């Protein structure tokens, strides 16, 4: 029995039945034909000085030598352009933006350059630095008595404070603390809580940031305790001292007060509101009052209550001649009836804000009419200019009655 065999297909074209595609062998191109000239790595010596040893030890470091590749002249123009840019790196001149950014970084580094650490600095004067765990372990792994190897172990961890014990092979014990404490309270815990409150940041977000950064920090419960026991009372004492000193300087003098309210949220759902009175001549705050909405009829009445409390407190120290406020309806009535001996003026900024809102509303009405009946550009510009001129003249007359400069 004779079987008939078919010769194998040529390697130039192989056809696959399922994919119906031709598989061709890889072709060598001139782009991959390179001549490698490899140089042998040379050994260099560098000196390393330890913290405790006096002798200088030499160690051999192998310098990495890059291999140079000589490309064939048959490469395309893009490769030639890239190689020309690489060759011209020696003649590179940085731009002005690069130089300015480098200069800013150098200025920031110069602040701590050649800075001598002061072991006797007070807690509020000390600089704070972030130190990694590996760097701290390297620092504490050498015995301070015999310079032998030691094993540091964290024994106490309290917020930002850690206390380590390092025992060397000779039995020497070294105790190290990351910061000083007032009795049992670490200073950095108190300073961090104070910085969060005085910066106006949200404590939850700041503590979450430290958690993402893997920085050891106290909890939210500890922050609330530090705020209520130390930070808030200290801020209150500082304000009382400053206010008493300022009122003693202005005692019995005539003052012109400017006041305005600020709530924790806009609209009619505010829970807290503060009213501040400032001396417009010295540009200093004389008093501010904090009001809660459940103390009055509603959130809209907090501004008037704050003004009443602030005026009642300042009457015993200064002689109030004029009061400048916004055009709040209840404040206007109260000043007209209860404080008739004082001149009540409206703030120019609030008046201008009200006029601008009316101008915008009038402009929208004019645009709506012209869009319905057809627009005439010249007529629209004329009507808008006349309306604005009329409002400006009314605004000048209004300010003239109040003896104010409309565009100060």
Q: Could you characterize the architecture of this molecule?
A:
This protein is α+β, with helices and mostly antiparallel strands and 408 residues long. Helix content is 39%, strand content 21%. The protein has a 5-stranded mixed β-sheet. A 3-stranded antiparallel β-sheet has the order 7-8-9, with no helix packed on it. Helix 4 crosses helix 6 and helix 9 runs antiparallel to helix 10. The protein is elongated, with a radius of gyration of 39 Å.
What's the quick description here?
The protein is built from ten helices and 16 strands. The protein has helices spanning 77-87, 96-110, 133-140, 187-199, 203-212, 220-249, 302-314, 329-337, 348-373, 377-401, and strands at 14-15, 22-23, 35-37, 43-48, 57-62, 68-70, 150-158, 161-168, 173-177, 181-182, 185-186, 254-263, 272-279, 284-292, 319-325, 343-346. Residues 36-50 have a biased composition (Polar residues).
Keyword list:
about 400 residues, alpha+beta, three-stranded antiparallel beta sheet, disordered C terminus
Instruction: State mean pLDDT (0 to 100 scale).
Output: 75
Q: What's the total count of β strands?
A: 16
Q: What summary fits the major beta sheet?
A: 5 strands, mixed
Radius of gyration: 39 Å
Number of helices: 10
Structural class: alpha+beta
Q: Which residue ranges are poorly predicted, with pLDDT under 50 across at least 5 consecutive positions?
A: 10-22, 29-89, 378-383, 402-408
Multimerization status: single chain
Cα distance, first to last residue? 118 Å
Shape: elongated
Strand order of the largest sheet: 14-13-12-15-16
**Helical content, roughly?**
25-40%
Give the SSE order as H and E letters: EEEEEEHHHEEEEEHHHEEEHEHEHH
Strand content: 15-25%
Region (Disordered): 1-50, 71-111
Biased composition (Pro residues): 1-11
Biased composition (Acidic residues): 88-109
Biased composition (Polar residues): 36-50
């Amino acid at each position: 029995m004779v079987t008939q065999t078919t010769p194998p297909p040529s390697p130039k074209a192989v056809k696959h039945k399922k994919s119906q595609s031709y598989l061709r062998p890889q072709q060598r191109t001139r782009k991959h034909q390179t001549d490698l000239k490899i140089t042998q790595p040379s050994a260099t010596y560098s000196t390393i000085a330890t913290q405790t040893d006096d002798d200088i030890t030499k160690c051999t470091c192998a310098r990495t030598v890059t291999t140079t590749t000589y490309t064939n002249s048959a490469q395309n123009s893009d490769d030639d352009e890239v190689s020309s840019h690489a060759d011209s790196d020696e003649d590179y001149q940085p731009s002005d933006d690069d130089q300015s950014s480098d200069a800013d970084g150098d200025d920031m580094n110069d602040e701590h350059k050649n800075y001598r650490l002061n072991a006797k600095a007070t807690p509020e004067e000390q600089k704070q630095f972030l130190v990694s765990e590996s760097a701290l372990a390297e620092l504490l792994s050498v015995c301070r008595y015999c310079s032998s190897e030691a094993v540091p172990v964290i024994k106490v961890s309290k917020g930002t404070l850690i206390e380590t014990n390092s025992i060397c092979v000779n039995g020497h014990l070294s105790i190290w603390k990351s910061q000083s404490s007032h009795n049992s309270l670490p200073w950095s815990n108190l300073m961090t809580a104070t910085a969060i409150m005085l910066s106006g940041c949200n404590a939850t977000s700041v503590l979450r940031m430290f958690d993402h950064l893997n920085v050891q920090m106290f909890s939210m419960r500890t922050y609330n305790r530090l705020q209520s026991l130390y930070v808030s009372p200290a801020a209150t004492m500082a304000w009382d001292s400053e206010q008493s000193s300022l009122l003693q300087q202005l005692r019995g003098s005539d003052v012109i007060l400017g006041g305005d309210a600020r709530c924790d949220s806009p609209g009619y759902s505010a829970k807290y509101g503060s009213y501040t009175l400032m001396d417009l001549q010295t540009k200093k705050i004389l008093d501010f009052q904090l009001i809660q909405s459940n103390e009055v009829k509603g959130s809209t009445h907090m501004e008037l209550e704050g003004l009443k409390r602030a005026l009642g407190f300042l009457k015993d120290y200064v002689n109030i001649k004029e009061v400048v406020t916004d055009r709040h309806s209840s404040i206007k009535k109260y000043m007209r009836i209860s404080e008739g001996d004082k001149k009540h003026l409206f703030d120019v900024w609030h008046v201008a804000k009200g006029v601008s809102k009316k101008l915008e509303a009038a402009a929208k009405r004019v645009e709506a009419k012209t869009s319905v009946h057809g627009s005439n550009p010249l007529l629209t510009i004329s009507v808008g200019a006349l309306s604005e001129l009329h409002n400006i003249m009314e605004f000048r007359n209004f300010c003239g009655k109040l003896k104010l400069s409309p565009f100060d």
